[in-house]
Amino acid sequence: MAIVKMNKLSVIGMNEEKKSLLKDLMDLGVVEISSSTDKLQDEEWRKLVVRDGDETTAAQYDKEVSRTEAALDVLARYGEVKKPLFNVKKTISAEDSLKLASQGEKFRQEVDELISLNDQLNEAFSQENTDNNLIASLRPWTSYELPLEETHTDRIQLRLGVCPPTADVNAASEALEAEGLPCVLTELNRDKDQCYLSLWYFTEDQEKVFDVVKGCGFTLAQLGELTGTVSQNIERLEAEVADLAARRDKLTADIKDRASWLEDLHFYHDINGIRRDEARIRSKLVKTESTFTFDGWVPVAANTAVSQLLEKYTCWFQFEEPAEDDDIPTQLSNKSFFEPAEFITRMYSLPNAREVDPTPIFTFFYILFFGIMFGDVGYGLILMVATGLVIKRSGMKEGAVLQLMKVLFYSGISSVIWGFLFGSFFGDLIGAVTETFGSHRINFSPLWLDPAQKAMFFLAFSCGLGVIHLFVGMGIKAYEEIKDGKILEAINDVFIWYLIVIGIILWIFGGRVGENASAIGKWMSIVGFVLAIVLPIFIEKGAGKGLGLWNIYSGVTGNLSDILSYSRLLGLGLASSSIATVINFLATMGGKGFAGIVMFILIELFGHTLNFAINALGAFVHSCRLQFVEFFGKFYEGGGREFEPFKKDTKFVNIVEEGK
């Protein structure tokens, strides 16, 4: 059964055994503990119980997880730790886990040290940036030779300032002279952004002087509280920058020396995550002074294991069938061939626990459609080899990435098969090579048909596959309606359209099948249309008199558009091989010479790589679309909630009990 049947679990236990019981449940990993919100909102329950939980402890562990993630990020950035393409958990035994857990203080100190090194490194970076910015701001003033702290004498003020590069400094000097103000305005430097000036004037003339120089946009320079000349400050800052760079190198080297801590931090991260989850789960429990209780969900197949565990404790428990209004979680369980396609189901939405899991049904169609759209022996082989190597060498045991790789591997096999049927090996590569560089052309002949030569037949074939695909989806809907006792609805929604669609096809094309096929098809269509008009009256008990005509209109247009959607099998199937053929033609235009061979290799590598990527993506997306829109649209509700058992949810390590 693709969707695992669930039972509702209720438990009442003793508070002194709570910690041990929850730990054993986590190790077992098959019980989803439900929230206690409903109980706490019930007036009767509120008189008896209060919410359990240890939010402070959970927050402390969560903080430690965050700090460890920060330390791991430091190692990743500066520790020259090679990050794997895919995350593979390291397996350790429960006994080794206990030994490592006893070194928690050591691991915490390692986290502290890495965070401290990173803080020092960031401080050095920040100070270096500050110094470099200050050096850049001082360089235009290098011709000013007086110490920067000397800004005045008893009677004279010495000021540095800037004005726009378009300002006329000479005109400003002349204006000062015209006002009879004894002062010196000197241009020290100029660039595209500013003009850099020094201004000397008598203290008693300050107000008049600034009234004049403001006319040219003069503003005082902001150089901070520096002492010494500009050149001395630049020299000092450059030496400081060099020291900071050396300090950064030393800190980076110190972090690299601690790369061996990676496995320690991985374990420390996950063990704190486990402890945090243990503390958090208690918030889903309610308690009295001496007891606690919770409800949850258990796969029926795990009832025995859960019973054996709970019987070790002083507790009461029971398993119940779900009620009609219960929010039952969904857990998929498919055979090994179909299991990878669960990735595609989850991309859309999990089925709810009361409907059919479409995964084992659409898997065949998905792989078939992908192969038709990608149909090329060469491309299929590349896809198989690439995904096969990832599956074999990555060490992944589970996860969405592994499921995707397996689906693409199967799709690669399908592409190879259809490539032989269509006669496509990197398009017409064999023919192009033998004709250009050999004595005569050798073609890679199709075992069935060349889609480019028989496009109309291939279009009909694609739509025929679409009819089969849609009929299967409609059949699932009929099964669910019959299971719910809605036989007339199943006839109206599904079987009538079987009659109509098959009848129309026989009516139009039946002459090629047999003498009476067209007549049979005509009568099938007529019977189907009559039933489509009449049945809604019985289903709606007289209220559906006009509904039948609407059903005919919407059903014909909807089914026709759905069937025509499968023409994309023709479009993408032709695109893959046709583009490959064009690439081969362009590659052979250089002839047989050395330059032609180089040109051939470069164009083939670039062109087929691009064509492979584009059409693999297209085949993946459009195969998904045919499932999600056309197929699922016939029966699928979705909206299922993932079954989330209370278990050791780790990121880097997999802790296993001995013997498992």
* Class of secondary structure makeup: alpha+beta
Low-confidence stretches: none
Shape type: extended
Total beta strands: 12
Task: Please summarize the sheet with the most strands.
Answer: 6 strands, antiparallel
- Calculate Rg over CA atoms: 39 Å
User: Counting H and I runs of at least 4 residues, what is the number of helices?
Assistant: 22
N-to-C span: 25 Å
Look at the structure and give the mean pLDDT: 92
Approximate helicity band: 55-70%
Report the portion of residues in β strands.
5-15%
What does this entry look like structurally?
- It is a single chain.
- The chain has 660 residues and is an alpha+beta fold.
- It starts with 5 loop residues before the first strand and ends with a strand.
- Among the domains are: 149-222, Alpha-Beta Plaits; 339-635, no CATH class.
- The mean pLDDT is 92.
- Helix 1 (18-28) packs antiparallel against helix 11, helix 4 (55-78) packs antiparallel against helix 10 (262-281) and helix 21 packs antiparallel against helix 22 (594-631).
- The chain has helices at 18-28, 37-41, 43-46, 55-78, 94-101, 104-138, 169-178, 206-213, 230-257, 262-281, 303-310, 342-348, 359-374, 377-394, 400-422, 429-437, 455-483, 487-509, 517-539, 547-564, 568-587, 594-631; strands at residues 6-14, 32-33, 50-51, 90-93, 156-163, 183-190, 195-202, 219-220, 286-287, 291-299, 315-320, 653-656.
